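#structure-requests
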Amino acid sequence: MTIIAARIDGRLIHGQVANLWTAKLNISRIMVVDDDIVDSNLEKTALKLATPAGVKLSILTVEKAANNILAGKYDSQRLMIVARKPDRFLGLLERGVVISELNVGNMSQSPETRAVTRSINVVSDDIAAFDAIHAKGTKLIAQMVPGDTPADFLSLLDKVR
């Protein structure tokens, strides 16, 4: 299995992902999956600057990410997939990518969101996507940093349904 970690994080690549997770899991490639970012030179440049030295970066649409993973393009690498929202991961699963565990790390607050934890905020569409991800057999956990004990995300989500 080439996918070492899958994480939802609204900040994408930042201190926790760039320094803590990549080092702890010995990640060789970070894949950012987002159909909008691929068209934003500013965001792509920022992500490149945030990527740790020695770690490769891919910024791909859901479709391209799924095709590359299924074609075995990253089989020799230790891959971490990062996306802002659960629908990106649902898109990967619907295209046949196997993700055994998804870490819900950070989802920003907005006027429309409901707080699941201090750092995880969801809207109804997110809850539906998480339910669909779980139905496909992916375990959902909440774990901010590697030293934290993973929590069952669905039981946390039940509090805001």
